[in-house]
Recover the amino acids of this structure.
């Protein structure tokens, strides 16, 4: 049974729950569920370690981040195997994106924190400067779609800013976090700086409500984000939320059509559409609408399906396929489930799917589906396209496909989204702000924005007496 990692030690506790291989549905591991006592023990361990960890010079904490990056490199193959077992991701994607990004997160935040200047303000004999102190114990709740990438994206800045953490991975994907616990232990990281607990149904709420948890960072559904806000409201704990989206792509007639089709194939179908940044609404200028739709549908049929994370999530995605039909959609590709003739037939697969013909106000076009599916809508003018893209309760990401330089800037600046790509998608500089508007979340992480969230400034002001003339 997979054990919790508390105060530097493996802890076996809690009722076991199973983790399934999404490729086949088979049970691959049993995990102990953190009960109130385990959650309390983890938070206490983090609290006990907090003072000494915060007292280290930032250069030393940055050194720890580099050592953890080396530890990840040493256990690279184990992390790849754990991530693939839990998620069913392709080997190539896991080797080139998920695990390398974990290494990059530790290295990048070590550099950013170590070289960050403090602020000072000088005005008429008054000097003010700010010092930053850590928040204390941070609860890190990580989703199942990019488990290692997103865990390290939050952990690295939280640690280098001087916080200790209690991590709660998704119940579907504890494997890479368990390997990371071993990496922390092998590196000799001070006990209690990183604690990892597993749970399924109650551990998350117990963790965020714990009075010694000072802040919460969460990536996942808007519904759970709201529940966390309610749970921490009484103690006004800071929260950083990245809560998904209903992302639009705008394809203009002056685009490089081949590049736009391939870009949209990536942005719709990567990771089976289970990335918060994936495109679910495509708007295509009318002169190229027919051809674009045909080419995208043809490519969708060539995409190798990736499993959904769980049987429940597969049912959710299929329910939207059924909804599209009942709302009157025309299905251009997919719409059902693939058949492989092997053990994958008991896995959690759905067809890569393209539909058209629905209203902007249909549930299908307004709700996050989180599967390999998009709706394609024609538009005539640039301002119409912008209005269509902005007509959403979410505001995380958007992509523009155009050959016009002026149009690219003009449209990008009017799109109500936290991230806008032009003629590309998913390209990230770790120093840039990341996050979304409206139901897509609160706050920004990335670069110094992460360090700002994981610390509190204190302003110190000194009045300098002037000598008598
Ligand atoms: P959720 O987003 O609902 O998050 C589940 C996680 O949150 C678990 O770790 C759970 O732990 C914890 N949690 C649940 N309730 C609370 C609470 N009240 N307080 C604190 N923690 C809590 O994940 P689902 O798997 O249910 O996904 C549902 C939908 O979310 C998906 O279909 C997709 O649309 C979206 N999603 C978005 C992602 C993104 O990247 N933005 C990523 C993944 C999903 P525990 O059960 O132990 O309490």
């Amino acid at each position: 049974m997979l054990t919790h990692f508390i105060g530097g030690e493996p802890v076996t506790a809690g009722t076991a729950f199973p983790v399934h291989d999404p490729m086949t549905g088979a049970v691959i591991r049993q995990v102990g569920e953190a009960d109130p006592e385990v959650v309390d023990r983890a938070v206490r361990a983090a609290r006990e370690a907090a003072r000494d960890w915060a007292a280290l010079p930032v250069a030393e904490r940055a050194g720890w981040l580099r050592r953890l990056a080396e530890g990840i490199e040493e256990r690279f193959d184990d992390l790849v195997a754990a991530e693939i077992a839990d998620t069913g991701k392709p080997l190539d994607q896991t080797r080139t994106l998920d695990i390398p990004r974990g290494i990059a997160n530790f290295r990048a935040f070590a550099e950013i924190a170590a070289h960050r200047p403090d602020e000072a303000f000088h005005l008429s004999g008054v000097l003010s400067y700010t010092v930053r102190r850590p928040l204390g114990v941070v609860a890190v709740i990580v989703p199942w779609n990019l488990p290692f990438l997103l865990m390290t994206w939050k952990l690295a800045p939280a640690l280098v800013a001087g916080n200790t953490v209690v991590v709660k991975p998704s119940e579907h994907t504890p494997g890479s976090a368990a390997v990371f616990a071993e990496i922390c232990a092998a590196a000799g990281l001070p006990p209690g700086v990183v604690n990892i607990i597993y749970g399924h149904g109650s551990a998350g709420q117990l963790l965020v409500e714990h009075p010694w948890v000072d802040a919460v960072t969460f990536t996942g559904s808007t519904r759970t984000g709201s529940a966390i806000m309610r749970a921490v409201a009484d103690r006004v704990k800071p929260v950083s939320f990245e809560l998904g989206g209903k992302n639009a792509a705008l394809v203009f007639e002056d685009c490089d059509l081949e590049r736009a089709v391939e870009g949209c194939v990536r942005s719709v179908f990567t990771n089976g559409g289970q990335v918060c940044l994936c495109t679910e609404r495509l708007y295509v200028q009318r002169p190229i609408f027919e051809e674009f739709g045909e080419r995208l549908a043809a490519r969708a049929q060539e995409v190798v399906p990736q499993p959904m994370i769980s049987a429940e999530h597969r049912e959710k995605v299929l329910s939207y396929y059924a909804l599209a039909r009942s709302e009157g959609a025309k299905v251009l590709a997919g719409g059902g489930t693939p058949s492989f003739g092997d053990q994958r037939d008991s896995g959690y697969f759905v067809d890569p799917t393209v539909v058209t013909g629905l209203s902007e106000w249909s549930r299908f076009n307004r709700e996050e589906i989180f599967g390999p599916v998009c709706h394609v809508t024609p538009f005539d003018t640039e301002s119409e396209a912008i209005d269509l893209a902005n007509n959403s309760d979410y505001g995380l990401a958007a992509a523009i496909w155009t050959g016009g330089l002026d149009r690219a800037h003009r449209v990008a600046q009017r799109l109500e989204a936290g991230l806008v790509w032009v003629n590309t998608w998913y390209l990230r500089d770790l120093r840039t702000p990341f996050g979304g508007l409206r139901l897509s979340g609160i706050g920004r992480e990335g670069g110094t924005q992460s360090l700002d969230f994981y610390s509190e400034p204190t302003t110190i002001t000194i009045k300098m007496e002037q000598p008598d003339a």
Observations:
- DSSP finds 15 helices and 22 strands in the chain.
- The pocket of NDP is lined by residues 141, 143-145, 168, 170-171, 199-205, 208, 219-221, 224, 227-228, 231, 242-244, 276, 313, 316, 368, 370 (CB under 6 Å).
- The chain has a mean pLDDT of 97.
- The first strand starts at residue 4 and ends at 6.
